[in-house]
Amino acid sequence: MNNLNISHERLLKIILAPHISEKTTFLGERNNQSVFRVSTDATKKEIKAAVELLWKEQKIEVINVRTINVKGKRKRFGRFMGSRSDWKKAVVSIKKGQEISFTNFSTAEAK
After folding, report:
1. Is 12 helix (H, G, I), strand (E, B) or coil?
2. What is the pTM of this model?
3. Which of 48, 76, 83, 84 is a plausible cystine mate for 62, CB 3.0–4.6 Å?
4. Coil, helix or strand for 34?
């Protein structure tokens, strides 16, 4: 994990969920990239280490990580205006020939 001194507990809390949409499936097919919803205070190095830790059994190698801060939309709730919360998404580039499988997820680290 490139000598990062981050606890396993912190790394397991960084990746919140995969982000599935038409655009992300296109990225996955064409550019060998995966998109995840991550915690808002996560850094690129932490995201890389978390992906490599979670898919350790598949020996996934992360090449590049790009992050995007998504602002929450303003919404009307009856006569009141509110807003959805902000969130962060990460586009993770994986070494050519590798693929992240969400079905064979490593649960050995969670025990």
Report:
1. helix
2. 0.83
3. 48
4. strand
Q: Which two tokens stand for residue 24?
A: 């992300």
Q: Are 88 and 68 in contact (CB under 8 A)?
A: yes
CB 68 within 8 A of CB 19: no
For the record, the structure tokens of 90 come out as: 């990460």
Handedness of CA 7, 92, 18, 97 (dihedral sign): negative
Can you read off the two tokens belonging to residue 23? 């655009």
The three-state (H, E, C) secondary structure of 72-93, written as one string: CCEEEECCEEEECCCEEEEEEE
Indicate the residue type of 108. Answer: A
Could you read off the pLDDT tens digit of each residue along the chain, which spans 111 residues? 455 678 889 999 999 999 999 999 998 899 999 999 999 999 999 999 999 999 988 899 999 999 999 999 999 989 999 999 999 999 999 999 888 887 765 555 554
The Cα-based distances of 4 to 22, 44, 66, 74 in angstroms read 34, 12, 19, 38
CA distance 6 to 49: 9
